[in-house]
Amino acid sequence: MSKNKSKPRKASVSANKVAELAGVSRSAVSRTFTDGASVSPETRAKVLAAAEKLGYHVNHLARGLIQHRSGIVCLIVSEMQTPYQAALVETAIRRLQAIGKVVMVLNTAGQPENVAAALRQTLNYRADATVVISGGPPASLIETCIENGQRVILINRNEPIEGAQFVIMDNEGAAREACLMLRRAGCSRLALVSSTAGTPSIVARERAFLAAAAEFGLSVTVSRSGPTGYDTGAEAARHLLAASDRPDGVFCATDLLAFGFMDAARIEFRMAIPDDLCVVGFDDIPQAGWIGYNLTTFRQPLTEIIDYIAGIIDADEADVPREKSLPVQIVWRKTVRP
């Protein structure tokens, strides 16, 4: 009975071997694979032919570490299964790879201690930048990373962290507009459906909506019964709509919350939307346009967010504004009365 023997792993081809085959110096090989470096056409042709024959590939990581740039961009993300986060991560990976970056995605699963550990890992890999999509890492940890030379860009989070850069949405303006939309639709008993997540973006929406309602003299009932998801929205509907003074206008801090709320309202309480109840969401995830929801919501500009980040990754931090604010867009559908 014959035994299968695994082949020994083939050693990687070195630049010295390429130089030897091409009959040039080691430095000529290095210059050939360095953008903008001076090398004659004849030498370049010899080096490229030898590299092709030997199967040589430049070790960009080693070169980058020597130059104090690894080409790595880390994405810190939680709740990757949600449509909004999945779309944001997918957009980021495509765009950053297009500009030659190696993208490392660290999934924190929503736990604060996991977010902290993931952010520390980026220091070990000497990432050029870390983009924090999750709202989890404490300011003290982010400050530690910045002190160690890490470039940190935070999405939808604005707080006084010296050295960090921020890309934020106009959460306040959108939440105020949501209140105005419901008021114009004739709603007088409002509800705010949020979650226990307490992320900076959700908190900003909550505060702005409550402030606008108070300005217009409208009462608001607030529900935060669990994490930011479909089930929490459905539970909020069961709680709010069972009351004698149930709301006639609802602002949900995310679309997923709105979906759960709408399904429970229509199926369990036999309510018609928007005739009996107006609902506004936030995010404009793809499902918001499905015929079963047709949700009026606010669209976050995913492409603009990532394009901006891709544009500043390699720029001198001194030349980049500390904060970039991007507007959100109203998407009118069928869940608010004209």
TrEMBL record:
Keywords: DNA-binding, Repressor, Transcription, Transcription regulation
Coiled coil: none
Residues annotated as domain HTH lacI-type: 13-67
UniProt xrefs under Pfam families: LacI, Peripla_BP_3
Protein name, entry field: Substrate-binding domain-containing protein
Organism the protein comes from: Paracoccus cavernae
Upper classification of the organism: Bacteria, Pseudomonadati, Pseudomonadota, Alphaproteobacteria, Rhodobacterales
